[in-house]
Amino acid sequence: MLRSQMNEQKTQKMIKISIYIAVSVNGMISNRRNVPDWLSPEYGQGFMEICQKTKAVIMGRTTYDIIAPDYLPLQQEGTTVVLTTDERAKSGNPTVIFTKDKPAEIAEMLAKKGHTEAVIIGGTVTMSAFINGELVDDIYFIMEPVLFGSGLPLLKNVEFESKLSLLAVTKLNNNTVQLHYKIQKEV
């Protein structure tokens, strides 16, 4: 086994990475307007709870631009990692780190900072990169009762294949359901 593969497997054991994402019933994570006006209050509550629990949040730059600065889940403590190629990106929030590092490097950095778990809250490129890197342990799908004719898909260019094991189904309100799946990893 190559040294990099061994290091990646070691990193996977050091930190648990979850995805927490709202999706339309046809698998979109954003409408074409890129406005989150379709999300239920229950999604927002769960979003804040999981971010506060993990104290380590990973997101893409578009997600950051939509929620910053007022709705960043970690305002004073923890680590917020934003994937971007913009080396000049800056934030007034002390938790925010902008990086163009690869997913395994981000997982290792978070583990070195003492985090044992992290949550990815969006977007398509970020989630796809971590899934392709086989770094995601479980996924929370919050199924919102909407259909989008066009928008941003859940995943793109994913090469990784795995079965999922259903851990829990939670009805969040009269129309919204949370599905919690564990990604089955080969041993």
TrEMBL record:
Domain Bacterial bifunctional deaminase-reductase C-terminal: start-end pairs: 17-176
GO biological process: riboflavin biosynthetic process
Any Pfam family the entry gives: RibD_C
GO molecular function terms listed in the Swiss-Prot or TrEMBL record: 5-amino-6-(5-phosphoribosylamino)uracil reductase activity
Origin superkingdom: Bacteria
Transmembrane segment boundaries: none
Record protein name field: Dihydrofolate reductase
Native organism: Anseongella ginsenosidimutans
